[in-house]
Design goal:
Layout (H helix, E strand, L loop, with lengths): L7 H6 L3 H6 L7 H14 L15 H10 L4 E4 L6 H6 L8 E5 L14 H10 L5 E5 L4 E5 L6 H4 L1 E3 L1 H6 L10 E3 L1 H4 L3 E6 L6 H5 L2 H5 L16 E7 L1 H5 L6 H6 L2 E4 L6 H11 L9 E3 L2 H14 L13 H22 L3 E3 L2 H5 L2 H5 L6 H6 L1 H18 L17 H8 L4 E4 L4 H9 L4 H9 L5 H17 L3 E6 L2 E6 H13 L5
Parallel strand pairs: 1-8, 1-9, 4-7, 7-8, 10-11
Antiparallel strand pairs: 2-3, 5-6, 12-14, 13-14
Helix pairs in contact: 14-15, 14-16, 15-16, 15-20, 20-24, 23-24
Length: 504
């Protein structure tokens, strides 16, 4: 909050108001401080918000503009869009240290005191007034707007116990117990999920947002606070439900819309950055890039699914936990088989279902289908979408040239079956895939002979699943074992079982 930055040496050297004057310290408002630090970062090409991906051309420029304009702002976005993380990054726009009147609970500026305590201390001690330094972490506060939040929590109230212990009259200013916002004076105060605040509590913010002062009970005093306010909210709650009072909306200077990753590449980077996939473990888990791609496509499919409530959104936390589940499924298999290395398989994609079902808000049609079935459907669609971006569409038959899938289909039509599962090691897995005639040649014919073995095995595995998703192969899943068969034969077997007659 100063024009002159405070380093450790300066903090240790300056301990009184006189020392502060001697070094020529000049105080500025917190928003001016943030503006100057942002300008310095931008001029030096320093990242403003570290670890925030996908917002470089959309959200971050708008936040920078709001800070340059000294505006309070709100981030509107669905769950899992990094709103809270963005707001917490604002702390790095504050100076590392800031001087206050020692003992002040509201971070009184030694040159512009607000509280009765600071004013009396300065009047009595003058340049000998003791100074303490607060770090940027101590100047940042946030509150989740739960329904039980009160005006006392945010602004303050009379504290009878404090008054009694100090033998003060309840009309004495020192009997006030200041709330979170006054204690954030000369700092940043964040309110998450603003619409959850009761309307009568929102009214208490009006003076702070416009006149920059507070009023507590019947006290006749004005305390012009210096605070930067920022909020987060869900767009549906903010705009449609009427949970934000109009005067408060009017006092928020900037409304910034956040969003989910707009492309797969950005989504992959976010998941890689946030997930606990690179962990210390006794086995090595190899993850072909195509599986990272499919995992992110699952979220994109969910965000367009008719079974999912799109107003609730599909959090990026879903793909983060899904990646951790997928790696853990492979890790568990390796531990049970007693091997020190394994690679991700298609079956591991279906082991992420528990990570999906708890994060998908279903509409009525989705509830009718069931959460597990909807999750499996979305995973299947993601596999098909990624597969068709590299391979010919299995559903399109070209009479002029033979399909690369014909030999594979013929292999199963002849009565052959393929049994895969977590009970077999990678070597056996590869051998089983290679026994399917035409499968390896179909993959290498598209991907090229130079493709590494890890990717070839992955695409062979995915090809079978893609053919099943196109109803060209039958599939049975029993106790973590998958069996691929001829589609027609599988249907006849089911008919035979259900009818009780021997079709032969």
């Amino acid at each position: 909050m100063t024009q002159k930055k405070a380093d450790i040496g300066l903090v240790e050297k300056v301990s009184s108001l006189g020392d502060l004057k001697e070094i020529g310290w000049e105080s500025v408002s917190v928003k001016e401080e943030m503006r100057k630090n942002l300008i310095a970062r931008m001029k030096s090409d320093q990242v403003t918000f570290d670890g925030i991906l996908g917002y470089e051309e959309t959200v971050i420029p708008q936040i920078q503009q709001a800070i340059l304009a000294k505006h309070d702002f709100i981030l509107l976005g669905l769950r899992g869009q990094g709103k809270t993380r963005l707001l917490r990054q604002m702390i790095y726009l504050l100076d590392e240290y800031m001087p206050i009147v020692k003992g002040s609970v509201i971070n009184d500026d030694p040159f512009r005191p607000l509280s009765r305590f600071a004013c009396e201390t300065l009047q009595d001690m003058g340049d000998d007034t003791p100074i303490s330094w607060v770090s940027r972490e101590e100047r940042f506060s946030e509150k989740l707007a739960t329904p039980d939040t009160t005006v006392s929590d945010l602004i303050g109230d009379i504290d009878p116990i404090k008054a009694a212990s100090q033998k003060l009259d309840l009309s004495h200013e020192d009997s006030i117990n200041f709330g979170l916002i006054p204690r954030s004076n000369r700092g940043i105060f964040i309110i998450n999920e603003l619409p959850d605040l009761q309307p009568r509590i929102q009214v208490a913010l009006l003076n702070i947002m416009q006149e920059r002062d507070i009023q507590i009970r019947g006290f006749k005093f004005r305390m012009p606070l210096d605070v930067c306010m920022a909020f987060s909210a869900n767009p549906e709650d903010y705009t449609n439900r009427g949970n934000i009072i109009t005067p408060l909306k009017d006092r928020i200077d900037a409304q910034i819309i956040t969003h989910y990753p707009k492309d797969i590449e950005t989504a992959i980077k976010i998941t890689a950055q946030e997930s606990w996939a690179q962990r210390e473990m006794s086995v090595e888990i190899q993850i072909p890039d195509v599986f990272r791609h499919i995992l992110e496509q699952v979220a994109f499919e969910a965000r367009s699914s008719e079974y999912i409530d799109q107003k609730s959104g599909v959090s990026t936390r879903m793909t983060i936990t899904a990646m951790e589940q997928m790696v853990s499924a492979a890790e568990r298999r390796a531990l049970l088989l007693g091997v020190d290395k394994t690679q991700i398989r298609v079956s591991d994609l279906y082991h992420i279902i528990p990570a999906l079902t708890g994060k998908l808000e279903l509409v009525y049609e989705g509830e009718q289908e069931g959460a597990i079935n909807v999750a499996k459907l979305i995973v299947g669609k993601a596999i098909v979408k990624v597969y068709k971006s590299h391979f010919p569409d299995p559903s399109k038959r070209n009479e002029e040239s033979p399909s690369i899938y014909e030999p594979i289909g013929l292999h199963f039509e002849l009565g052959n079956e393929l049994i895969l599962g977590d009970h077999i090691k990678d070597e056996e897995y590869r051998e089983a895939l290679n026994e399917v005639k035409g499968l390896q040649s179909a993959v290498t014919g598209v991907m090229g002979e130079a493709t590494n073995e890890l990717d070839i095995v992955a695409w062979m595995d995915i090809t079978l699943e893609a053919l099943h998703q196109h109803s060209m192969l039958g599939k049975e899943e029993i106790n973590q074992t998958t069996k691929y068969t001829d589609m027609l034969g599988s249907m006849l077997d089911q008919l035979d079982t259900s009818s009780g007659y021997d079709l032969e």
